[in-house]
Amino acid sequence: MSNVRVGIVGPTGYAGMELVRLVAGHPRMTLVYLAGSGARTGPLDAHLPHLHVLADALPPVEPLDVHKAADLCDLVFVALPSGESGRVAWEIAQAGLDRGVKVIDLSGDLRLPPEAYEAWYGRPPLPREAIAQACYGLPERHRESIREASLVANPGCYATACALAVLPLGNLLADVKGPIVFDAKSGVTGAGRAPKEHLHLGELANDVYPYRVGQHQHTPEIEQALGGAVRVLLTTQLLPIPRGILVCAYIPIPPDEAPMVYDRYASFCEREPFVRLLPDGQLPHIKAVNGTNECHLAVRWDERSRLLQVFTAIDNLGKGAAGQAVQNANLMFGWPEREGLNLVPLWM
Amino acid sequence: MSNVRVGIVGPTGYAGMELVRLVAGHPRMTLVYLAGSGARTGPLDAHLPHLHVLADALPPVEPLDVHKAADLCDLVFVALPSGESGRVAWEIAQAGLDRGVKVIDLSGDLRLPPEAYEAWYGRPPLPREAIAQACYGLPERHRESIREASLVANPGCYATACALAVLPLGNLLADVKGPIVFDAKSGVTGAGRAPKEHLHLGELANDVYPYRVGQHQHTPEIEQALGGAVRVLLTTQLLPIPRGILVCAYIPIPPDEAPMVYDRYASFCEREPFVRLLPDGQLPHIKAVNGTNECHLAVRWDERSRLLQVFTAIDNLGKGAAGQAVQNANLMFGWPEREGLNLVPLWM
Amino acid sequence: MSNVRVGIVGPTGYAGMELVRLVAGHPRMTLVYLAGSGARTGPLDAHLPHLHVLADALPPVEPLDVHKAADLCDLVFVALPSGESGRVAWEIAQAGLDRGVKVIDLSGDLRLPPEAYEAWYGRPPLPREAIAQACYGLPERHRESIREASLVANPGCYATACALAVLPLGNLLADVKGPIVFDAKSGVTGAGRAPKEHLHLGELANDVYPYRVGQHQHTPEIEQALGGAVRVLLTTQLLPIPRGILVCAYIPIPPDEAPMVYDRYASFCEREPFVRLLPDGQLPHIKAVNGTNECHLAVRWDERSRLLQVFTAIDNLGKGAAGQAVQNANLMFGWPEREGLNLVPLWM
Amino acid sequence: MSNVRVGIVGPTGYAGMELVRLVAGHPRMTLVYLAGSGARTGPLDAHLPHLHVLADALPPVEPLDVHKAADLCDLVFVALPSGESGRVAWEIAQAGLDRGVKVIDLSGDLRLPPEAYEAWYGRPPLPREAIAQACYGLPERHRESIREASLVANPGCYATACALAVLPLGNLLADVKGPIVFDAKSGVTGAGRAPKEHLHLGELANDVYPYRVGQHQHTPEIEQALGGAVRVLLTTQLLPIPRGILVCAYIPIPPDEAPMVYDRYASFCEREPFVRLLPDGQLPHIKAVNGTNECHLAVRWDERSRLLQVFTAIDNLGKGAAGQAVQNANLMFGWPEREGLNLVPLWM
């Protein structure tokens, strides 16, 4: 039953083109509307030759018309730059209110309370009612609310990878007294497709470096996703590869809980369709989840330092963006969570 | 009707693991047998974590047993190193003769006449009858014979990319008086997965270089695929990327044929399900065909030099190996040629 | 005797920063003036942390003042984008005329006759007298004129690599009847440092593709460097690496000259301080000349196709830009040609 | 006064070839002896074409002869694989005892007490007297002993980058009560040049992953370098680039010391010729120290988590191997510490 009509706003950006790929392969979705805010209109595969194989399934890219989006679609993904995306998502949600249109925004605009947004993004927030209406779309934490939501704020890529490293702790999190350190590394598509000097291959090839340390806007998002009870240090580092996030979380759990903690992770991962606990002795590879919505996770108690160490790997455009958005759509429409998301990565 | 039982010999090599991915996603194939010649046995995803999502569909890897392969399977892909692969394919084909087992060998062992094989591979050839029985599996040239074949020699990656640049000329090829130059570049997976110093990332990163120039074993294969009428210079060059082949062919067609040549390419590509003539002004990107069985092709007449210039891009593991093997299987079983091969690449 | 005072205009671009490195290490040069046309002023190592080790030897970057450059310096390198660079070089040359200031422009602005420039660059040329005064700075061809010149047009990177593949033919070039094909591949710094979408690491990583084929502005430059007697087809292709050019030239020499051609290359390379003929059986690696002014060259007669095949590898920022500019400066000042250019590459 | 005669054992490995480059450029050293333990003998540039420019300064590579090394050389660098290197270094040191030959071993064989070596390297240790004689060569901690030493155990690459992040704390280290976490990432040359599957470019390109976590043999070396008073968690991660180490250290100093801690780092770095404290707001780039002996360091107090965060970047083959070995040699011979080490990196 492939009859949910889908629109994508921003299909030439990195998250947007990934959404096109996922929606085109989803058995219950039909792509009916593609709209951009820029100059790239017409056949999508004229801009993105790898999508030619989908050409017959792709509507032409049009200049964005919020009302048309709300009229044509049952579901709209909005994947524009932060600062523009949330407003568009909110406008479509309002325009489609009576038709019951569902909207998922992939930007950071609807994820934080207005005060936190202004402080961390350095830009005026959207109206409080917009933010209040948006449900934070981390299925592993907010599954039930997402099912009921009509407007979802899709989580950030770093925030997803960090939160998934800690959420399996469950109520043990309350006993974590010290700060949690997230040492996180990301491929370059996390920075968007707009050309900037530091993203030039001549600059980034052969380099790795930290950036925005202590100031990254995903910091408050992680603290919020963890329930607000822990202090977090997020170290963000840029990798000279297109995709993927690897996080190492250092968590000071009470040492006497160490023997039981592996079971907590195991049972969490058993319940969660996209979080996989790696067999003992294996550690996650960024590459092993490329192009998918999977999260690979490894956990170990380090007796030497008496710290719990958790690794997570996701695709920043998969579980960190487009994949998670489709997972959220599956929840919003009451479908199986893995519908359209049984994706097999390339190893090289 | 997913009832053709498939075996893959060599599933931990680069072509083999790609076959696993393609067969697992093919609507008419069921993977029933995985066998290796080396030490890697047991669950395949223990060696290849990215395949975990397929774990339920994967039989364990066993030490190769030719008779078991011939008994269990309707179709066997053999993807071992050259020198070993053809012999195994031939043995399975013989063992499965009465059951009508179909075998596709991805190595170079069954592609050339014995004398040429010995000269270019520097190694004794397989028995003449084995080679005689094998059908050279380039669908764009031998489609009808492939449909009837029970043993197929899947073409080489360079040979495929080069032949596809010239085959659209059709009978005009007879008027090409001078040599055809193929300046070809390949990603590193074309060299196989066995560790060698020159494939070490520390060696190859940031480098590009020619190798085996004038001595590459795909040279006679190309000449044979083009009907033996032209002299060929194949320049092979190694790229510091995992996948993809880009070929630029320089063809001295008679200049007065130049005005009509584009139409020849257009009508060839219209007939061929996997060869796409790019719109005027576009040139192929290796990336745009990654993970697929597509060949992107651009053709231009260069008035300055009076040479026809043709670019082709394929994935060396797709149309250059596993993808083409599945295309051949589709022909051998009488299925639509694109069955199981509507693959959408990642752009990054 | 380190008393030639040097200025560099454009020190934050790729060729410019390489000039800084070379000039700072040159025993007869002292860096006295750094000027940019953009917003980056002040200490150079604030923009380029890798140059911190030179901080004491670096004058601050100032907004460009043509007269100051002409007053302070004995030698000025101008490495601005084409369209701006040649004009600045010409103005400095004029302003420094009575002081005998020498100027080397690294752009394409002064390399071609006005008509050719306009046709290939699509932009109005500089005054005919400026172009007439500039000496084309390919030492292997114009050594004597460079020694006398006060204004040098430093050759293009592709043009250098292509010309060096053919110049050793000497008067045999007159017997080359057919076109010469140059299949050329370049690292991304050849495209400059200004951010553009196609240079984004997310776009270019894992990709290789041809561009501007038959339209590249180095085409007429190569034909001119070869004396105007041959037709040339230049295929330019972008590599996902920072540096390096690899050219394969296919040259239809008269077959009866084949036995003697290796000696022509050997004796040319013996005379030339920066062109190295590789030992028989070796082929050039881009990496082996990175960061240097060397050109590695291999030549082979291909009996099958009856074509002479010549490979050259240079660093597009070395022999293709900054290194060659310093070589030209050495000639202009009457110093040994390798002065300051005994550079040892990193292998990885 | 270039009269110290130098031998290098293992010149075709990654650290060895870097030593060749550094020694050849050192104003007080002359390379007189090159010896390998494997099959690569004869002219070094036959194996390493980038070293051709040094050909006249390179003795041929010979099969190793310990006594010849001790007779010919005043100083020998030994850069063989761990397990073999320390024994060779010890033998040369003994053979050259009366001549006062100085030996620097770049392996891990002489860095740890025998018991720790056996536990972490899983291999029998060298004789206790060998280990006792070797001076651990971290100049920032053992400068005075190195000056007197005739046998130096050059530190490990991770150990150097980690120790340098903490040593500036000085006596404050005694007040660090909790564990220090080192989240460390390294380019692939740290794993040596011997071919292994996981170092294949097809495997490692586009990937990043942790390995040997909690088991890396540099763990006890770091604890020892820090005086044995702190517990350490070392997370080692492999990067798809040739060179460079980036470490982020998380250090639980007493919060009331935070205001003074920057000054400790500043004064340490002022004294140290190769450790550079980056200006406030800058963070280190791996690339900025490539090919050099520099260490770039940034320090920040994170008020949110109340942790001191220190970043260090070094070249694993520079300050992490060959560069540091030359720095140690400078100390052993009483020369200025930066002699021969004023190296300027390439930015791309």
UniProtKB/TrEMBL annotation, chains A, B, C, D:
- An annotated GO cellular component: cytoplasm
Q: Where is the Semialdehyde dehydrogenase NAD-binding domain?
A: 5-149
Any transmembrane segments, and where?
Answer: none
Q: Which UniProt keywords apply?
A: Amino-acid biosynthesis, Arginine biosynthesis, Cytoplasm, NADP, Oxidoreductase
Keyword Oxidoreductase attached? yes
InterPro entries assigned: AGPR, AGPR_AS, AGPR_dimerisation_dom, AGPR_type-1, NAD(P)-bd_dom_sf, Semialdehyde_DH_NAD-bd
Spell out the subcellular localization from the entry.
Cytoplasm
Gene3D superfamilies with a match to the protein in the record:
Dihydrodipicolinate Reductase, domain 2 (3.30.360.10), NAD(P)-binding Rossmann-like Domain (3.40.50.720)
Q: Under the GO molecular function aspect, what terms does this record hold?
A: N-acetyl-gamma-glutamyl-phosphate reductase activity; NAD binding; NADP+ binding
Query: Which chemical reaction does it catalyze?
Result: N-acetyl-L-glutamate 5-semialdehyde + phosphate + NADP(+) = N-acetyl-L-glutamyl 5-phosphate + NADPH + H(+)
List the PROSITE patterns.
ARGC
Active site per UniProt:
C157
* Enzyme Commission number(s) from the entry: 1.2.1.38
Q: What is its main location?
A: cytoplasm
Tell whether rRNA-binding is among the UniProt keywords.
Answer: no
Q: Which GO terms describe its biological process?
A: L-arginine biosynthetic process
Query: What's this protein's family per the entry?
Result: Belongs to the NAGSA dehydrogenase family. Type 1 subfamily.
Kindly provide the name given to this protein in its UniProt entry.
Answer: N-acetyl-gamma-glutamyl-phosphate reductase
**Which lineage is the organism of this entry classified under, starting from the top rank?**
Bacteria, Bacillati, Bacillota, Bacilli, Bacillales
The gene it comes from is argC
